């Protein structure tokens, strides 16, 4: 009985071992034959990148950016908003390339239609997403350009750089957390959020409104709408402000942050952020509740 | 009794105004006529500020293939052509007219005697319908002349007339069938002639026995036009469901009724066709039901287009203090109005005033997998799944699950015991998926 048992054991061990070695041999040659040769630098570059896969570079994720950089052997036109220049310098050093310094950017909300400035006329109780609300109606405050306040941008942000202010009904962007990946810009159905230069000491001046209606109409819905009066355009000595379709726009490339435009705006639509307070004009409007 | 097979729901009917005869609403001082009152490209204005217009005069041309003319609903002076807020709060271009006493444009027969001679050429009928700016009055406002031209290679067998009015509360079509029956039937005969069909079927839900009786009696011995009473079920007034109910044919996914040899028109459209062809009268007025539990005088009004909604509500007894919502259309598919100052357009079939308590939504709870939405969907879709896929932005899967077949009847959301915003989510997914399909095609 035990002899038979031994025999079965030996046969099975030997035969399975033989099959195993044969398969290993086949697999070894197949692996050699179909070997994928990948540039080890891709891994090295991907290692440096933050790994957030936010898509801020315009590619599908961090690995896609690493592949593109190694393939092109150049950093032209490539950027990693969350990593910033530090990461690009590191990659440049690794690959022996030149990294051009990019200007730090930040998301800016160009609407200040708070519940106080643009009082709600109707109440919305449908699906709380901006894209749906946008397809249904102009918004609780009535401005067809203004923030709907359902938070599509906040949900799109992967860096916890935004939250909804329940008081004002507007999203708030946190200066320190925003990496300028642009996810919120894409998520907003009304294109209210803009990427702007972060500015010296985080100082920024911008028109916080995108309403292109005639002044009177815009003003009817919102007390702080840009009415397209053109006073700021006249005031600006650097040709940084343009007026188109009843809406002023400050070109951050030309703006020198001289702060001349903000005081002349009759509706306080021009916002100054992170400036020391001025003596005469209250900054209550210009400084939205920054956390 | 016949009905469609798949899905459907039974919302409370609440047809409070079924016995209210149609009243003519007096002209307001100022009317605003939007240039886009139809599906398709907005019409192009032909008048300028300061112009004098006569009632029924052409004031904006629909020049694109899918577009419709707009006529002056009243005599008066054009005060301006400007953007005014429409029912959604967005601003749309409109012609504002300060009204005076009616002075009809040349060639319009304002008499009430019946003109039953239908010996027109089919082309003449279609042309007249186009000239007079007739659009589908069931609510979709698709330009009627486009539907009356049978595309090459297709043949129409049946003209189906939609007298279902399956939306709760609304009674505009019901009253029209009772009060303008003779005219409507002449209109149907004209449409049959234009389409070259020998048979027409009028589908009427059985909750309107007086209308069924009246239409049958008026038809007399005419065997070409048949009345089919239908079992009450929402959304029977939808084209595909109505075709299924009356002749048991199924329109394939993504196709038009002409695929199965049918053309569907609303009873209101049939009446408008009569007025256009026999009386030379453009589409400048329509019947609007103004109804609500809290309204003191709910009524059916014959209203000139461009009249502000507030004037209708005033005539129905004024806006009650506890109003929560004014809905443009029926409770199932209508849209809440942003502003009572918006004008009545060709597509306004009713105005529904809900109290705050009626208007509120149920609190949203979790999906309990009861599958009631599956059983309710008249298109055989899986609303809970579509809503989830749409929420996760899985557009390709949405397309696979036939999200584009959804006609947004709202049966799923109505039946959902958890108060989930199924239709809202599906609408988001539908617009995303539609965009994806259009981009792929271009």
Structural write-up:
The complex is a heterodimer of chains A (about 290) and B (about 450). Chain A has ten helices and eight strands. Helices cover about 35% and strands about 10% of the residues of chain A. With about 290 residues, chain A is α+β, with helices and mostly antiparallel strands. Chain A has helices at about 1-35, 40-50, 60-70, 85-95, 130-135, 150-155, 185, 215-220, 230-235, 260-265, and strands at about 105-110, 160-165, 170-175, 195, 205, 240-245, 245-250, 270-275. In chain A, helix 2 crosses helix 3 (about 60-70). Chain A has a two-stranded antiparallel sheet with strand order 1-4. A two-stranded antiparallel sheet of chain A has the order 2-3. Chain A has two domains: about 40-95, Electron transport complex subunit B, putative Fe-S cluster (3-methyladenine DNA Glycosylase II, Chain A, domain 3); about 105-275, Alpha-Beta Plaits. The termini of chain A are far apart. Chain B has four domains: about 25-100, OB fold (Dihydrolipoamide Acetyltransferase, E2P); about 120-280, Rossmann fold; about 285-360, Ubiquitin-like (UB roll), CATH 3.10.20; about 370-440, no CATH class. In chain B, helix 4 (about 180-195) packs across helix 7 (about 265-280). Chain B starts with about 20 loop residues before the first strand and ends with a helix. Chain B has 14 helices and 17 strands. In chain B, a hairpin with a 6-residue loop joins strand 15 (about 325-330) and strand 16 (about 335). Chain B is of the alpha/beta class and about 450 residues long. The mean pLDDT of chain B is about 95. Chain B is globular. Chain B has helices spanning about 120-130, 145-150, 170-180, 180-195, 210-220, 240-245, 265-280, 310-315, 355-360, 370-375, 385-390, 395-400, 410-415, 420-440, and strands at about 20-25, 30-35, 45, 50-55, 60, 70, 75-85, 90-100, 160-165, 200-205, 225-230, 260-265, 285-290, 300-305, 325-330, 335, 350-355. Classes of the chains: A alpha+beta (about 290), B alpha/beta (about 450). Chains A and B meet through helix 5 of A and strand 16 and helix 14 of B.
């Amino acid at each position: 009985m035990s002899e038979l048992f031994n025999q079965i054991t030996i046969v099975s061990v030997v035969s399975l071992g033989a099959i195993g070695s044969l398969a290993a041999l086949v697999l070894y040659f197949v692996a050699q034959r179909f070997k994928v040769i990948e540039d080890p630098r891709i891994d090295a570059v991907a290692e440096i990148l933050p790994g957030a896969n936010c898509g801020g570079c315009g590619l599908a994720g961090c690995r896609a950016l690493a592949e593109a950089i190694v393939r092109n052997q150049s950093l032209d036109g490539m950027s990693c908003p969350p990593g910033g220049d530090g990461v690009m310098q590191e990659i440049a050093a690794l690959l022996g390339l030149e990294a051009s310094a990019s200007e730090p950017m930040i998301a800016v909300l160009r609407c200040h239609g708070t519940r106080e400035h643009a009082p709600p006329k109707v109440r919305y109780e449908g699906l709380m997403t901006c894209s749906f609300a946008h397809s249904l109606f102009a918004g609780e405050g009535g401005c067809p350009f203004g923030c709907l306040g359902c938070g599509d941008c906040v949900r799109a942000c992967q860096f916890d750089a935004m939250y909804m202010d329940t008081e004002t009904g507007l999203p708030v962007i946190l200066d320190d957390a925003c990496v300028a990946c642009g996810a919120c810009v894409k998520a907003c159905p009304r294109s209210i959020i803009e990427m702007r230069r972060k500015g010296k000491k985080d100082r920024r001046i911008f028109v916080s409104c995108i309403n292109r209606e005639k002044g009177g109409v815009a003003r009817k819905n919102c007390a702080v709408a840009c009415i397209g009066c053109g006073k700021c355009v006249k005031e600006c000595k650097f040709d940084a402000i343009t007026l188109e379709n009843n809406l002023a726009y400050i070109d951050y490339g030309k703006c020198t942050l001289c702060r001349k435009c903000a005081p002349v705006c009759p509706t306080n639509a021009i916002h100054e952020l992170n400036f020391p307070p001025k003596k005469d004009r209250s900054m209550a409007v210009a400084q939205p509740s920054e956390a | 009794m016949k009905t469609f097979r798949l899905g459907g729901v039974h919302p409370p009917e609440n047809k409070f105004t079924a016995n209210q005869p149609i009243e003519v609403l007096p002209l307001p001082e100022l009317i605003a006529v939007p240039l886009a009152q139809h599906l398709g490209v907005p019409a192009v204005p032909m008048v300028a500020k300061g112009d004098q217009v006569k009632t029924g005069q052409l004031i904006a041309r629909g020049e694109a293939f899918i577009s419709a003319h707009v006529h002056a609903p009243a005599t008066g002076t054009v005060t301006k052509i400007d953007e005014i807020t429409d029912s959604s709060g967005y601003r749309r271009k409109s012609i504002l007219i300060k009204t005076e006493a009616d002075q009809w444009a040349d060639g319009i027969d304002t008499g009430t005697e019946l003109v039953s001679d239908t010996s027109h050429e089919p082309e003449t009928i279609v042309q007249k319908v186009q000239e007079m700016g007739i659009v589908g009055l069931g609510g979709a406002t698709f330009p009627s002349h486009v539907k009356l031209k049978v595309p090459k290679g297709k043949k129409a067998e049946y003209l189906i007339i939609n007298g279902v009015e399956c939306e709760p509360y609304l009674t505009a079509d019901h009253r029209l069938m009772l009060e303008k029956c003779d005219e409507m039937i002449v209109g149907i005969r004209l449409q049959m002639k234009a389409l070259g069909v020998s048979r027409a079927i009028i589908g009427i839900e059985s909750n309107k026995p007086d209308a069924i009786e009246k239409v049958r009696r008026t038809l007399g011995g005419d065997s070409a036009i048949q009345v089919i009473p239908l079992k009450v079920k929402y959304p029977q007034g939808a084209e595909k469901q109505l075709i299924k109910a009356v002749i048991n044919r199924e329109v394939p996914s993504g196709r038009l009724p002409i695929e199965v040899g049918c053309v569907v028109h609303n009873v209101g459209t049939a009446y408008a066709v009569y007025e256009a062809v026999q009386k030379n009268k453009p589409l400048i007025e329509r019947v609007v039901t103004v109804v609500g539990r809290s309204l003191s005088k709910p009524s059916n009004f014959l209203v000139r287009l461009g009249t502000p909604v507030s004037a209708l509500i005033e005539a129905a007894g004024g806006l009650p203090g506890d109003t929560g919502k004014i809905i443009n259309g029926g409770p199932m598919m209508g849209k809440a109005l942003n502003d009572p100052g918006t004008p009545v357009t060709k597509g306004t079939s009713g105005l529904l005033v809900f109290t705050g308590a009626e208007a509120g939504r149920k609190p949203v709870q979790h999906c309990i997998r009861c599958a009631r939405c599956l059983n309710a969907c008249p298109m055989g879709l899986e609303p809970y799944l579509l809503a989830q896929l749409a929420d996760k932005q899985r557009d390709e899967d949405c397309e696979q699950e036939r999200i584009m077949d959804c006609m947004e009847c709202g049966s799923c959301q109505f039946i959902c015991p958890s108060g989930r915003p199924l239709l809202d989510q599906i609408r988001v997914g539908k617009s995303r998926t539609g965009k994806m399909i259009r981009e792929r095609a271009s």
